[in-house]
Amino acid sequence: MKVLIIPSWYPTPGAPFLGTFFKEQAEALAAMGVDVAVAHVSVGSDFRPSNNGIRRETINGVLTYTYTRPNLTPRFEYGRRLQRTHMLKKIYRLIESEWGRPDVVNLRSSLHGYEAVSLCRKYRLPLFFMEHSSFVITENENSAALKRLAYTMRFAKVNACVSNALYRVMEPYGDVRIIPDMVNGDFFKPLETPPNSEFTFRAMGQLRPIKGYDLLIRAFALLKGKTDKRVKLEIAGDGVLRSRLQELINKLDIAKSCHLVGTVAREQVPQFMNGCDCFVCSSRVETLSCVLNEAAACGKPVISTRCGGPLDIVTDDIGILVPVDDVDEMANAMLVMLDKAGRYDSEKIRELTLNRFSVKKICGQLIEACHECQNTAETSPKNGKGKCLKLFFETLKIGMVTIGGGYAMLSLLLESFTEKHRWLSHDEMLDTIAVAQSMPGPIAVNTSVMVGYRVAGIRGSLSAAAGMILPPLAVMSIIAACYTWFRANEYVAAALRGIRAAVCGLLVWATVKLARSSIKTGRGIWTAVVFVISLLLSIFTKWHASVYILGGLVVGLLFNALYAAISEKRSR
Q1: Are residues 124 and 245 both part of a single domain?
Q2: Could you tell me the CATH number of the domain that includes residue 107?
Q3: Where are the alpha helices (DSSP H) in 285-384?
C-alpha cells in the first residue's frame, strides 16, 4: 500500500527541528512495510535562496519532497492558502511521476486542510485525516480554524485525532477515532548517566506563550523559597520568548539554578531526558505532548498541567497533574516530587507508556485506518454512479415542485444540500450561491452545477444540471403547445395567483435562512452592515446589480485582510 503523508509542519533547512515526530512516524511506517512518501509545502518570511525551493530526499526509506518559498501575500491567509495549494499540486506531480499514484493520502493536521482537499478532489485520491494541531482547541466556535476542521472532516474518508481533548472538539463534526502519537522505545530508554548533585527538573519545547514556561520559572522560584535542598531547572528549546524568559529569570534572582539551555539535537534528547530527576510540562494547551511520553519511556516521573492531551498520559504511577496557570500548585507539585521521585518505579513507568504508545501498536492502528480509507474509497458511491443518480433525482424533485424561479428554489436547495445530504456546510452553500449569482444563467442551475462538481466531479455537474433543467423544459414545452388555452382559462389564472403568493413566501424564507447562516455575531457583523447598505442603495438608487456585487467583493477582501492583520497582531 502506498501512503502519501502531507504534514502541516516538517523539518526544513530553515527549521530543522520542526515536526520531527511527523518525520519519525513516516519512517516508522516505512519500517513496518508501508510504501511511504512525504509532500510538505511551506511559505514563510525566510528569503534566503539556500533555504527555499524544492528538495527531494530519500530518508530511511521515505521519499521526501519539501517545497519552501517566501510568502508573497503577507498578512493574508487566503493568499498563503492559494500559494500552498499550487505548491502542493506541483510537487505531487513530481512524486506521482517518480513514485506512482498513492492509495491513500494521510493529512496530518487541518492547518493544510483546504490544500489537501483541493489536491484529493483534483486527482481523485481518498483522504485519511488526522488532527494534531492545538488551534482547534484554543479557537472559538465560529473561528476560521474550526470551519477548516469541519470542511476537512466532511471530505475525508477516515478521521482521527491524537487525544481525548481533540476528540471532544471534533466529535460534533463527524465520526472520529483516537490514534495517539507513538514513542520509539528503542530510542527513548533508560541510560546510564552521572548522578546529579542537585535535584534536576527539566523541560523541553518551543519558547512560546502556549508552553507556559513563565509559569514554570515562577513556580521554581517559589520552590526555592520552600526548600533547603539544592534544586535546578533546565529548559531546552528556542523561540520568540527566549529573551523575555531570561529577563524573568534574572528578575527573580534564580539565574544560578535556572537555565535556558538552548536547542538540543534530536540524537541527544534521550540523554537530556535521562539526565533529569523529574520532567515537567507546564503548557497551557497540548494535544498530547510527545515529550512527556519520551521522558516516561526513559522511566522518568513527570509533572504536567491539565492542559488537554497529558490527561491521556499521566496516571498516578507516572506522575502528578496540576491545574493550568496555577503557579502555587506547580510549586507544590515540584516540592512533593523532591521526596517522591525516588519512590516511583521507573520500569513500571516505561512499561505503562510503551503498552499504550509503542511504535508497533500505533503503526498498526495507522495502517488499519489507511486500509479502511482505501476500501471505503473503492466502494463509495462518490466515485461511482450512485452519487450521480442521487444528485439527479434530488435536483429533479426540486425542479418539479418549485415554481417562481431560482430564488424560490434556494430554501429547498439549502435544505437538500446542507441539511439532508450534508454535501456542503451552510457557509460553503452561501459562497456557492454568491458565485452562482454572479455568473450568467439561472441561479438554481448554476448552484446545482457547482454543488454537483463538488460532490462527484464533471459527472456530478451534468447529473445535477440535467435534473434541474428537465422539469421546467417539459413544463415550458407543454405550455408552448397549449398557450392559447392556458391564457384564456380562468382556473389556470386563479391557480397562478395563488402560486405567486406562495412564491413570495418561499423567497422570504430563503432570505431568512440565508441571513441566519451568513449574519452572525462577532466577525460576521460586517455582513449585516454590507447587507443593509446594499438594500438601501438598491431602494433609493438605480445602480446596476454588478455595482453591488463588485462592491461586496472589494469590501470582503479589505475586511478579511484587516481581520487577518488584527488577529496576527493579537497572537503576537
Answers
A1: no
A2: 3.40.50.2000
A3: 290-297, 327-340, 346-357, 359-379
Sorted by sequence, the CB contacts under 8 Å of residue 271 that are 6+ apart come out as: 191, 193
CA 97, chain centre distance (Å): 28
Render pLDDT for 389-401 as a digit per residue (tens, 0 to 9): 888 888 888 877 7
Whether 514 and 527 share a structural domain: no
Residues 324, 439, single domain; the answer is no
pLDDT in tens, 49-93: 888 899 999 999 999 999 999 988 887 888 899 999 999 999 999
Residue 473 grid coordinates: 423544459
Starting from the edge strand earliest in sequence, which strands make up the sheet with 2-7, in order?
53-59, 62-70, 35-44, 2-7, 104-108, 127-131, 158-161, 177-178
Whole-angstrom CA distances from 173 to 382, 432, 551 are 19, 21, 34
CB 212 within 8 A of CB 236: no
* Same structural domain, 63 and 158: yes
- Judge if 317 and 284 occupy the same domain: yes
d(CA 123, CA 85): 13
- Are the beta carbons of 548 and 538 closer than 8 angstroms? yes
**Is 72 a domain residue?**
yes
What separation, in Å, do the N-terminal and C-terminal C-alpha atoms of the chain show?
43
Q: Classify residue 101 as left (phi > 0), alpha (psi -120 to 50) or beta.
A: beta
Q: Which domain holds residue 277?
A: 199-356
Between CA 127 and CA 279 the distance in angstroms is 37
Q: What is the DSSP letter of 196?
A: P
Position 232 pLDDT exceeds 90: yes
198 close to 374: Cβ distance less than 8 angstroms: no
Q: HEC profile for 91-113? A: HHHHHHHHHCCCCEEEEECHHHH
Contact 183/354 with Cβ under 8 angstroms?
A: yes
Q: What is the amino acid identity at position 2?
A: K
- Residue 156 CA to residue 171 CA, distance in Å, equals 14
| Amino acid residing at 431 | D
Locate 423 and state its grid cell. 454535501
Residue 108 covered by a domain:
yes
DSSP state, residue 404: S
Instruction: Name every residue whose Cβ is closer than 8 Å to that of residue 338 and which is 6 or more positions away in sequence.
Output: 199, 227, 229, 231
- H or E element, residue 426: helix 426-438
Q: Which is nearest to 337 in space by CA: 512, 204, 146, 202?
A: 202
Residue where a domain terminates, one of 143, 178, 213: 178
Task: Give φ, ψ of 101 to 5 degrees.
Answer: -80, 130
Task: Tell me, yes or no, whether 268 lies in a domain.
Answer: yes
Considering only 34-48, 294-308, 322-336, which range has the smallest mean pLDDT? 34-48
Report the domain count for the chain: 4
* Residue type for position 275: G
CA distance 484 to 480: 9
Both 342 and 458 in one domain: the answer is no
Decide if 56 contacts 2 (C-beta within 8 A): no
Specify whether 538 is located in the same domain as 439. no
Question: Same domain for 508 and 411?
Answer: yes
Read off the pLDDT of each residue in 480-496 and give the average, rounded to a whole number.
71
Looking at the domain assignment, is residue 194 inside a domain? no
> What are the backbone dihedrals phi and psi of residue 258, each rounded to the nearest 5 degrees, phi first?
-125, 125
Range with the largest mean pLDDT of 154-163, 433-442, 473-482: 154-163
| Model pTM above 0.85 | no
